[in-house]
Amino acid sequence: MNYLGAVVLLWFIYLGLTMNFELNNIVLGGLVAFGVTALIRPKSKKLHIKRLPIALLSSIKYTGILLIDMFLSGVQVAGIVFHPRLPIKPGIIAIPSLSESELSEALSAHAITVTPGEIVIEIDEHGNMYTHCLIATESEKKAEDAQRLRINLLQNIFP
Asked: Of all residues in the chain, what percent are helix, strand and coil, respectively (each to 5)?
């Protein structure tokens, strides 16, 4: 995708999210889109039509898994908060990123962070994501499998 295409796409996303079509917001959206595109510096990649169905299916599956994780984690955190003894055992665990792409690594860290009860606090130069968890023992058991699934789906979406 070229710069102009990325700016226009981000501009429309911004306007769609704000739903404010006043002149000052339209100008602000263009400036934000241009700034983000300048910071990201997207590389041009050719679209392979043969890959489109698997990328679309992986996108849907990734979004579904993320929404389910957010819901289940939210229910779990609510249960912890309302429990009289507040049964937490917080800790920091290291989750290997298992990714060769910075984009996949960043999106995976974002997926971990948006689920309640966990937040990525640092990613080291080897790609380990240090994550603070409310219940570290439970999170550590399932973290690597969940990360492997996320990275496989993201590699299908962004090769």
From this structure: 65, 15, 25
